[in-house]
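The protein record filed below.
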Amino acid sequence: MPEASPMRHRRSDTIRRKSMRLPCTLIWIVACSISHAQPTAVVLPSEPDYEAEKLQFQRGSLLYYNLHGNSDDWSAAALQAAADEGDVQAQVRLGILSEQGRGLPQDYAAARSWYEKAAPQSADAQFLLGMMLYQGKGIPVDFDAARRHFEQAAGQGSLQAQVNLGWMCEYGQGQADAVPDLACARRWYERAASAGDPMGMFNLGTQYYLGKGVTQDYAEARHWFVRAAGKDFAGAYYNLGVMALGQGQARDPVQAYEWFKLAELAAYPGAAYNIGKVVGELQDTQRSEAEEWVRRWRTAH
């Protein structure tokens, strides 16, 4: 197999172009290529082609937005009463529970109805409406409408919406001419990254790594991957490991081992394989020191 090359976050092991769907996870590269964000995709430095799922519409924390713990602890009756009185958070919660079928029957129409009620006062509701339209949950896929909701949410400060808009610009989704607009993508990724969003950081770093819409700049790519890694973003760990094998910097197998180890501990695809390839280059003392560095990093992050 070829030597590791950074993956693009979101999805791809060797970054191959897949269905043009918004990502939901990082890109993994089969054997060792750079990963593009998740969403996720990996790209071989020589062949910048990556999975479309790169930009994972990160729903994890948002799906349980402000639920104060396990949302199932809230009775449907109590939420319904609060929502009927105009409580925006209760409306969003009911929408989430209806969409996910948690504590209530799964009902996309009901979920959409609650999100629509909350949307005028909730960036999260706007974002979730955009996701339903983008994914075609209970309604036909509508990129134009999804984009409008993401723009509303982004204007209210939703970092997830900003990243998703970057993704849609990158692939020409929700645009009249369906032509990718890489400058638009970069602007949204920069906006989200500057506000501290690790996915925005990862995707921006990937653009610089690939030279996609910008002048290729490994130093700038590494800068953003390091910042995303500081947010415990697994795809960034992987890509930094790939770069440590000689992409934009001197080859450093110890550093590569450290980053791949962090990625492996986060269950990132391809990381364990790459560790197996690089560990033979380390002396016992180097490996022990690298393991200690990983331990300290995890304690600090």
Remarks:
- Residues 217-300 form one domain.
